[in-house]
Each structure stands twice: as C-alpha cells, then as structure tokens.
C-alpha cells in the first residue's frame, strides 16, 4: 500500500441535502467520507488520472446539494456530482483548459453557480470555473 499525503480537503453537502461530507484529495485519489457522530465513515475512494491541483465547492442555483469542481496539474477539469441512486460519483462536465474544450450537459453552470475556493496553487482552475460557460460555447458535445 502506497501512502499519499493529503493535498486538499473540503467539507460539503455532497451525498444528500443534510449530509455532512468530507472530501479529501490525496495526490491522485479523491476520498469521500460521511461525517457521523461516531466519526468519519469512508464512502468512496476514486482514482484520478492526474495530480489534483484544485477542488472547489459549487452550489447550483435552486439546489440543496453541492457539486465539486476539480482540476489537475495538466489543466484537465471536471464538475462532479454524487448520484444517490447508484452511490457513485457522476461527471457532469469535463474539459481541458489548455485547448478550451468542454463536454457535458451541465457545461454552462459557471454563469450562475456560487463557489468556494480551497487551496488552489494556480489561478487557472478558478479562471476556468468562472469562464466555463464561455468555454462551453466553443465546443460542446
């Protein structure tokens, strides 16, 4: 087993409206925990292709659950949401910040979403988040 240091963490309402969740980025893994009165309960450990550079909590207008904007060091980014029916994480939108390419049905979220920044070492992820709507107009699948 390879131990990885925690690079990012954030608290959010990711799995349900009233759930308290902790998302922990460990270099190339995203780990989801449920925060309970008895402690942290691991829910998912998701391998990520690339080193995680930034995590942002995104709350869509009219929604009661958070979504997660994530970017990697090679400027790939995605919007993640928890699927309550399958118990897995769905990719709502994804793209590559180096070529202005976005795919996904929720690609226009940035024009109306509120978000919270968490320990980003580069302004690029935040810039991409703020301009994702404009990028989606360039090339949407």
What would you note in describing this structure?
The chain has a single domain (8-138), classed as YVTN repeat-like/Quinoprotein amine dehydrogenase (Methylamine Dehydrogenase, Chain H). It is 11% helix and 48% strand. The protein is built from 2 helices and 10 strands, in the order ββββββββββαα. It has helices at 123-130, 132-138, and strands at 8-12, 21-26, 29-36, 39-47, 52-59, 67-72, 76-83, 88-96, 101-103, 114-118. The strands form 2 sheets. The protein has a 6-stranded antiparallel β-sheet. The chain has a 4-stranded antiparallel β-sheet with strand order 1-2-3-4, with no helix packed on it.
Distance between the termini: 38 Å
Major sheet: 6 strands, antiparallel
> Helical residue percent?
10-25%
Estimate nothing, just give the exact number of structural domains: 1
Proportion of residues in β-strands: over 45%
> What class, by secondary structure content?
mainly beta
Low-confidence stretches: 105-125, 132-141
Strand arrangement in the largest pleated sheet: 9-8-7-6-5-10
The number of helical elements comes to 2
What is the helix/strand order? EEEEEEEEEEHH
Short characterization:
With 141 residues, the protein is mainly beta. It has helices spanning 123-130, 132-138; strands at 8-12, 21-26, 29-36, 39-47, 52-59, 67-72, 76-83, 88-96, 101-103, 114-118.
